[in-house]
Write a structure and sequence with these properties.
Shape: globular
Oligomer: single chain
Bound molecules: pyridoxal-5'-phosphate
CATH architecture of the largest domain: Alpha-Beta Barrel
CATH topology of the largest domain: TIM Barrel
CATH class of the largest domain: Alpha Beta
Largest sheet: 9 strands, mixed
Radius of gyration: 23 Å
Structural class: alpha/beta
Helix content: 25-40%
Number of strands: 21
Length: 424
């Protein structure tokens, strides 16, 4: 459920008409709803109510805007980070270091130093060489890192291939069959304290079966690890729960269904559970508002050319993702069209042969469910400044990232000395 609703014929974010934000911020612009974020946190927490003190660490990659992170930090969430940059953003937003989990397959020594000095809660290691590097770094600093290994359970999550992370051939984690050796190795290293296990099999999961299968494997591994003498105190079950993008499809499992499954599978694990939800917290809490530049004839259907491009919202071009596309002030008429951006790539197509509200040049349109993996993946391709972001809270709203002016892009490039001389 979200707080983007039609009132008096115009889409509002909570109590603010989206057209008012577009008028002031220009388009395209991402708009987030605080009430929706808060609701999703509440629903996720309620789903875990039977668990003893779980840590909910928001996957910062889904939406790293400082205002979004600060909203979540105020609600008591921790952070799952995958880079030094994400760690710094989470800390700057007020997430306590001990609630930070550091995931990711390519942590560098510099990032490890930063995280150790800040005193983060847990490193999720993805390989034995990474354990060696962290041991070396921690020992030199005279610090101890609490570690888990991310296990690759060889389970196909049944989602888009590019966001599946738990198949044997995917780059993530330590192969299930090699886990005992990896733990024995890490336990013998100075500067590391083995505390847990971690798993994350993919994103936009619409079936609980693969997660259940992966978690059952993790449960069996915990028993084996304990039998081998490791004190396993935490189990990080990752993120991945899907959100409804397309109202015509059956909805993904609810947080309550997910929570019930987790509680059933983990009942006798005797660990502190960690969760890394991203999309389910912010996905439906954001929309991308764009304006129709013009409608162009097509052989089959007309092309509705909007001022947002694949650089602003990559998901359709990257993952063939489906976003609901709605007029902000619908006339009631429907039409079938191709929705495209202005970028010089055929991939800059948001929807083909889509039946949707009929729109004309100048109309505002919203890409729904754009709060996760939206603005954070935006780039400046075709020399377009990064899209601004705004957040609504009841009747209030504020810009939380300004549109990047083209001058800033130009100023970021520097000339080599020989071209500078020529200029002089
Ligand atoms: N944790 C890890 C390690 C991830 O790679 C991801 C994203 O794929 C997440 C959590 C968050 O996933 P989602 O946004 O689907 O909940």
């Amino acid at each position: 459920m979200d707080h983007f609703t039609l009132r008096d014929g115009a889409m509002h974010a909570e109590d603010v008409p989206l057209s008012a934000i577009a008028a002031e911020a220009g388009t395209p612009v991402y708009v987030y709803s605080t009430a929706t974020i808060e609701r999703h946190v509440r629903v996720f927490r309620e789903a875990l109510a039977g668990l003893d003190d779980p840590l909910v660490a928001f996957a910062v990659k889904a939406n790293p805007n400082g205002a979004v992170l600060a909203t979540l930090a105020r609600l008591g969430l921790g952070a799952d980070v995958v880079s030094g940059g994400e760690l710094m953003r989470a800390l700057a937003a007020g997430v306590p270091a001990e609630k930070v989990v550091f995931s990711g397959v390519g942590k560098t020594a510099e990032e490890m130093i930063l995280a150790l000095r800040e005193g983060i809660g847990q490193f999720n290691l993805e390989s034995v060489p990474e354990a060696d590097m962290l041991s070396d770094v921690a020992t030199k600093l005279g610090l101890e890192a609490q570690v888990a290994f991310r296990i690759n359970p060889n389970v196909d999550a049944g989602t888009h291939s590019k966001i599946s992370t738990g198949r044997a051939d995917d780059k993530f984690g330590v192969a299930y069959d090699r886990a005992l050796d990896a733990y024995a190795h890490a336990a013998a290293l100075p500067g590391l304290k083995v505390v847990g296990v971690a798993v994350h099999i993919g994103s936009q999961l619409t079936d609980l079966g693969p997660s259940r299968a992966a978690f059952e494997r993790i449960g069996a591994l915990i028993a084996e690890l304990r039998a081998a003498g490791h004190a396993i105190a935490t189990a990080d079950l990752g993120g991945g729960l899907g959100v409804p993008y397309n109202p015509a499809l059956p909805p993904p499992p609810s947080p309550a269904d997910y929570g019930a499954m987790v509680q059933a599978v983990t009942a006798d694990w005797n660990v502190r559970l960690i969760f890394e939800p991203g999309r389910v917290i912010v996905g439906n809490a954001g929309v991308l508002v764009t304006r129709v530049i013009r409608v162009k004839d097509g052989v089959g259907y007309p092309f509705v050319v909007v001022d947002a491009g694949m650089n602003d919202l990559m998901r359709p071009s990257l993952y063939d993702a489906w976003h609901d596309i709605r007029a902000i002030e619908p006339s009631g008429e429907r039409a079938t069209a191709n929705i495209v951006g202005p970028i010089c790539e055929t991939g800059d197509t948001f929807a083909r042969a889509r039946e949707m509200d009929r729109v004309e040049a100048g109309d505002l349109v919203a890409f729904m469910t754009a709060g996760a993996y939206g603005a954070t993946m935006a780039n400046t391709y075709n020399s377009r400044g990064l899209t601004p972001e705004a957040i609504v809270n009841g009747e209030d709203w504020a810009i939380i990232r300004e549109r990047q002016p083209i001058e800033a892009l130009i100023a970021a490039d520097t000339l080599p000395p020989w071209l500078n001389k020529e200029k002089a």
